[in-house]
Amino acid sequence: MTQTMATDFEARTAESALMYVDGQWMPARSGASFPTFDPSTGRRIADVPRADGTDVDAAVRAAADIAVEWQFTDAITRATLLRRLAVLVTENAEELARIEAIDSGHYLAKARELVGALPMWLEYWAGAADKVGGRTIEVPGNKLSLTLLEPLGVTAHIVPWNYPLLILVRSVAPALALGNTCVVKPAEDTSLSALKFAELVHAAGFPDGVFNVVTGYGTEAGAALAAHPEVRGITFTGSTETGREIARLGGQHIAQVNLELGGKSPLVVFRDAPLDDAVEVAVQGFCSRAGQVCVAGSRLFLHEDIADEFLEKLVARLRTATVGDPFDERTKIGPLASQKHYDRVREYIDIGKQEATLLYGGGVPPDVDNSGYFVEPTVFVDVAKDARIAREEIFGPVAAVMRWSTTDELIETINDSEYGLFAVLWCQDITAALDTAKRLQVGSVMINDWFGELPMTPHGGHKQSGVGREEGLEAVPGYTQIKHIGINLDRSPAQATDWAGAPL
Ligand code: NAD
User: Which atom belonging to ligand 1 lies closest to the Cα atom of 470?
Assistant: First the structure.
């Protein structure tokens, strides 16, 4: 069928894909593999190597062996390679987008948009490579004191399935630019685009071992990677539950751990908001990527004066949101990424039917392939603030609507959450919006806008939504460590002093 990849990559991976370790393509040493499926049909696309601890060890050792050479490769050379990679991503954008669509269920137009944006991340970090550094520090006496910003060494990148390429690139680009060597573990449901990306890294001319991809299960390959003592930094994006385990594994060998975790983000509509715009952003907020977005606006807070009118417009708008085949140009909402996740979202919809009132959706969309993992956009109203659908991350196209009247009550309800990733405020009164933004316990607030991420703006969570930051120069500490150098400039023979400067 036309939606198949129909590319060299597909022909090569039709039987079984290979992993990329130390510049070589290889199966798992055990010979084991597992299937990856097209979520819009349930059909098997390819078998992917099932790496275990031995494979992970080989990848980490390859990365460790070249770590010093890569650290001392000058920043301009590292930047040049990243820029070459950006060009190759652009040249291969259509194939990358098709792989992403077929393996993860992104609808094709969205996959093209996302892949089209990736060079921005590579170029941003190529630009930063020779611009970030240490500082000089004023100290007493005729001395010089300075810091060097050094790479960590081998960094592990454990990636989820919802934005397989974007999340890979957003952490690998700074890691490589700042002199680290990388081992990537894509999600088991969506390994193929990472493997295609590895081909491009190879073609760009990065030295063998600088970038490696091991495919496999989280509890096997992922855990072995996080626990590997030669991994000096871990960037994990995924669920809060797995994030806790990664922090534990990384803690055993004191790796620097960056966690980008889940959310239950509010989208707040104020009384003065232009309602048509607010409806549009609400639909984007909880339906984009079929709701499988960490920053999804899954809690909709409507000011009581406009709530009824808003909901009427929302229902009318949802009737035009076509769910279906990612390769059909009319599609705006694709399938969920796997059978397992589909079952989970359906379970939450059943819980919602008991806890609240179903306003829209809740079923299987019309005219879809019944073997695919499709869910109708679903809206629940009359949701109590302690309902499970108001508190837990569903990660599907499901919105829990709550009404509000006073700002204090609104802020208290929003902040009464274990998560603190993101919030969107739709509001004309900028003073009210800024006052609310200042009081919310979240990592990012968008006012009259909804964009998840850009390479130059920091992204990350408060509370159980994570620690550390991706993107922007705020991400630099996650991929570097500091070395302090002190120099005595006196011509007289150097004299050791204690901490207060007195001779020992
Ligand atoms: P997940 O935690 O199940 O898996 C993420 C990755 O971790 C996968 O590669 C998986 O194989 C691996 N993994 C699983 N168990 C592991 C273990 N014990 N040790 C090591 N690795 C392990 O998450 P998911 O279901 O793939 O992704 C959805 C979650 O990701 C949601 O909670 C979402 O909010 C979150 N997310 C957060 C951001 C962000 O930037 N904050 C972005 C996207 C997704």
Answer: 40
